[in-house]
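Dear colleagues,

As part of the handover before I leave the project, I'm documenting each prediction I ran so the next person doesn't have to rerun anything. This entry is a single chain, and its sequence is reproduced below.
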Amino acid sequence: MKTTTANLHISVNCKCPHCDAYLDIFDLENVKYALDETHNAPNCDLDIDCEECGEKFIVSDIFF
């Protein structure tokens, strides 16, 4: 029987409150540091710059 491998992709998604762009913010350094061992970040209040419209907003919590 043949075998193969699988890949796991992790994302942290949010919507910009200014332009409604759907953003994956996982690769931002402050997001990775905010996540705890359960992949949650309650009360994190992360400053985000929207890559679509350039406006700033805050992600208040991240839930898995």
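Residues 26-64 form one domain. Strands lie at 13-15, 22-24, 46-49, 56-59.

All the best with the project,
I.
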